[in-house]
Amino acid sequence: MQLKFDGGQDKFTSVPIGVLVGSLFAIDWGYRLWGSGLVYPATTWLSVILIGFGLVSLLLAFAFPLMEKKLEFISLLASCIGFAWWVYTQIHLSPGYQTDEIAFDQYASHLLLQGINPYAHSLALAFRRYLVPPTYYTYLLSGQPVVSLSYPALSFLLYTPVMALGVHMHAALYVDAFFWMGSSVLLWFLLPSQIRWIAFLVLGFMMFDGNVFGGVTDALFMPFLILAVWKWDRFVDPTHPLLLKWMGPIMLGLAMSVKQTAWFLAPFLVLGIMMESKRSGQSWWRNPLRYIVGVAVPFLLVNVPFIVWDPIAWIQGSLLPLVSSTVPQGQGIVGLWLYDHVGNGHMEYLKLLGAFVLVLEMLLFVTYYSRFKRSWILFIPLALFWTERSLFEYLVDLLPILLVAAISVRTIIQDKVSRIPRLSKYGIGIFSSASLLVFCLSFIGGQPLKLQVTGVQTTGELGLIDSVSVHVINHENTPVSPHFTVMENTGQLPTFWLSSGPSTLLPKQAADYTLSAPNVPAMPSITNNLSVDAFTTTPATISTSADFYLPKMVTVLSPRAFNTPVKIGVPFSLTVQLRSTSGIPLHLSGVPVTLNQVMYGPNYVSTASSTINGSQAGAMAVTSITNASGQAVFTVQGQFVEPLPTFFEADIPNSGQPFGYSNIASINFVK
Fold first, then answer.
1. CB within 10 Å: which end of the chain, N or C, has fewer?
2. Transmembrane ranges (predicted)?
3. Contact call for residues 31 and 25 (beta carbons, < 8 A)
């Protein structure tokens, strides 16, 4: 595509926008790969080649405009190579899976190859097999992790051929990356030449790449959905090629066999086929019925073997994300409940709100079909935005699908006078009012439990919090059994914490709980705010405490580095400056600061031998008080030549709960 702009003196210059974007992403992939060469020597070569290609491609595109299409396609291949190698390096730098969904799907494929029905078998071993941290489990409100398969069968069948060939540990990630690349290439071929450079954005944007590498398996249904919505309105056109006509419902059926996200497209597409049939003078129900059959056949072909194998297990697994009481999480409206501590905590309001909004959107789609024919796919993330689980991938991964649907359907000329049926008016009014009412009700009233963090226990030098004390009051008129977790401001819901306190709170009862972290990944950092969340199953609620944080101070030790050895017996100064977490010096006097020293061996920790402020040799936790400039000065003197460097670190003692740990300075003492 040539983008023209005024070059001055009535001359216009063309910019090859496709090559420009493709070349920039080739350079970007080269930059992302730079730095991994010490681990994978070939990476440096590829990085240099991609960066060099991007620069040369830009030069040639401006100099030889006729080469634009070839250069754009080569840029696409270069981006695919960069993406594939980036995924490979990331896998080996961080070998564990970062979601339970990809671990479960791959383990389900493993079980199937062993002749075991994955729907009827616990998948708990997948956590250990694929190194999934407990913070990435999906939890029920009871505090127990989900350990059963919760997706239709194609979610793991697509991994089975690769695993049968002997690829095991990262088979699912390799397949997901391949499907994401394939989707980007498919976009490039299906989009008009003027905008097909958007394929580079889909392949290169970190919000998409992070989902792929992070273990979100949406990449598996992406090519199926792209083909399902491409020219979907031609299904009612008798002149449209038969193969292309039936490709849409078949691809939708396969997409629905991967993940429940695709299920939400089905009612809109069926309604769209109905509207197209009415506008073309055909029976309003025959074509939708044919379309439904076209969707159902591939869906059943994939899933019927497992339905026959154990129908109850398949139904429970496939419907689990829609009907089970999993913990709320996401970037939608529920984020205000979790992180800003608003809302009344009763999750049935958000479930009902999402359902009402979805019905309202269907009514709007049918009533104002000509206006929403191109953009209806946005109805799906907008409906999920209001629910209790509005994960980021639910909100963004359908955007490439929106683009394909919007540019491939036929334009409808809006009627000058469009009479809206009275029933549609009533329906839109009723569900608009119901949605607004439920939304308001979800923010009226207090949360079921009032929580107040009363104290924390830190781990010292590790800089983590391993215990939290919380005071809880039950405002409900019924007994509740709370389950607790501790949330920090990273946005990741961690493991449920072990609690010491009454298992059941009677109405209006107050109690104190001591929460203990079950593992290291669940421990929040002392530098982050934290809040306590309490979940109950009957009723399904969430209650959150106000943010709790330690004083926002850090210490900076200077000199930051000793690049030459220091002679023993010669005193020198180490200065500790109080600073805010944003690095601003704090002029606070009278603040106690401690300085510690230690030596680290290959497999042991040893006491150092320096004196600090005239203390005994090797003394630890020597305290000094800050002056008016917020500085604490320590006089250090080496006493012996040690075989190991001495490491110094400062902190703020805070009555036995230290925080504000400084940088570490190492010193080699010599005679």
1. C
2. 12-31, 43-64, 71-88, 108-127, 139-159, 171-191, 198-230, 250-271, 291-309, 315-338, 350-371, 391-413, 425-444
3. no
Q: Is 70 exceeded by the pLDDT of residue 628? A: yes
The listed range with the strongest mean pLDDT (243-257, 448-462, 534-548) is: 243-257
Q: Domains of the chain, with CATH numbers?
A: 449-544 (2.60.40), 554-670 (2.60.40.3450)
Both tokens of residue 488?
A: 């920090």
How many CB atoms within 10 Å of residue 93?
Answer: 10
The pLDDT of 290-310, averaged and rounded, is 98
Is residue 612 within 8 A of residue 634, CB to CB? The reply is yes
Q: CB–CB of 267/362 below 8 Å?
A: yes
- What pairs with residue 652 in β-bridges? 659
* Count of Cβ atoms closer than 10 Å to residue 295 Cβ: 25
DSSP 602: S
Dig out the tokens for 582 from the structure. 């944003």
Selection from 114, 107, 179, 180 nearest residue 150 by Cα: 107
DSSP annotation of 280: T
Task: Return the percent helix, strand and coil in the chain, to nearest 5.
Answer: 45, 20, 35
**Beta strand segments in 349-416, E:** 389-390
- Nearest CA among 54, 1, 452, 398 for reference residue 188: 1
In a 13 Å sphere around the CA of 318, the CA atoms on its Cβ side amount to: 22
Q: What contacts 56, CB < 8 A, 6 or more positions away?
A: none
* Residue 631: partners with Cβ closer than 8 Å, 6 or more residues away: 575, 576, 577, 578
Q: How confident is the model at residue 185 (pLDDT cuts 50, 70, 90)?
A: very high
Phi, psi angle pair for 556, to nearest 5° = -125, 120
Token pair recorded at residue 289: 């019925």
DSSP β-bridge partners for residue 453: 470
What count of other Cβ atoms lies within 10 Å of the Cβ of residue 57? Answer: 25
Report residue 524 as tokens: 């929040």
Query: Is-contact 218 259, C-beta < 8 A?
Result: yes
Local structure of residue 621 (DSSP, 8 states): S
Amino acid at 524: P
